[in-house]
Design goal:
Layout (H helix, E strand, L loop, with lengths): L2 H15 L3 H24 L9 H13 L9 H27 L1
Helix pairs in contact: 1-2, 2-3, 2-4, 3-4
Length: about 100
């Protein structure tokens, strides 16, 4: 991500935290590509036949990130770090529920 867009993403994160819904609408297209790349990386590490798809993982991360609107975002790296952690949690929860269903 270019330095100018990093500053813009940071400002949008701050605006979103302060309740500006239009900031969220502008933010999503800016971060979507990187979130999809991250999700793709995590999905490649999963076993073949995994039932969760990359787009579903990104969508789950978005849904969880909405609950994090009050966090004090430091910069885009902080945002992507939290998003990565949420994606890993989604994968772990999915694996647990899948194993539970087998029993």
């Amino acid at each position: 991500m270019a330095t100018s867009s990093q500053g813009e993403v940071t400002q949008l994160l701050l605006d979103w935290r302060n309740g500006d819904q239009t900031a969220l609408e502008k933010l999503v297209p800016m971060v979507d590509g990187e979130l999809r790349q991250l999700a793709s990386l995590y999905m490649r590490r999963e076993s073949p036949g995994h039932t969760l798809q990359t787009s579903a993982l990104v969508n789950e991360a978005y849904l969880k990130l909405i609950d994090y609107k009050n966090i004090r975002w430091q910069n885009p790296a902080h945002f992507f770090g939290v998003a990565a952690q949420l994606m890993r949690r989604v994968l772990v929860d999915h694996a647990r529920s899948h194993r539970h269903a087998k029993r």
